[in-house]
């Protein structure tokens, strides 16, 4: 992880802990999850919003007013809205994407879920995805949510990442291993 990403993750983790604990105490976890999903979608859809949260040219007051207006318009949960306002006051809005990820991780942990990032050469069928989730659930002891992506460059097989463990069973990695073995011989 690069140093700026590490700083963002550290800042986001502290805000996420505070926001999550307040939401949990006030029994507002469902509203928090809805809010972070909406906020994530807004960040993905709006280049202006992404620019707003990272621009050093926008003052604290302007960021705070913009974030308050956006939160009000989106109907975000008060705990999330207040957290974003505080982040704007402290010039920490650049950490919002990391905050969203940290909050999602805390929510999944509360539900006993774990996310498996799965890369395949072609889209997994529903049956394949369910079978993989079941197998991973048996190994991890938690409910597994599959986050599937497609990357044709792996040629075939799967690359599965669950937490800090990664299983690379792709044709590309096997070909690379074979190539390295042949270089050592010849």
Shape: globular
Structural class: alpha+beta
Residue share in β-strands: 15-25%
Which strands sit side by side, in order, in the main sheet? 2-1-3-4
**What's the level 1 CATH class of the largest domain?**
Mainly Alpha
Please tell me about this protein's structure.
The protein has 186 residues and is an alpha+beta fold. It is 65% helix and 15% strand. It contains 8 helices and 4 strands.
Blueprint (SSEs and pairs):
Blueprint: H1 3-25, H2 29-45, H3 47-54, H4 60-74, H5 78-89, H6 96-111, E1 113-120, H7 126-140, E2 143-150, E3 157-162, E4 165-170, H8 171-185
Parallel strand pairs: 1-2
Antiparallel strand pairs: 1-3, 3-4
Helix pairs in contact: 1-5, 1-6, 2-6, 4-5
